[in-house]
Amino acid sequence: MVTIQSISHSETDSVKNLLQLSGLPYSDLDEAPAHFFGVKENDQFIATGALEIYGVNAVLRSVAVHEAYQNMGYGLQIVRFLENKAIEKGIKHLFLLTITATEFFKKLGYLPQQRDLCPPEILSSAQFREICPLSASCLSKKLQN
Question: How many CB atoms sit inside 10 A of residue 94's CB?
Answer without folding.
Answer: 25
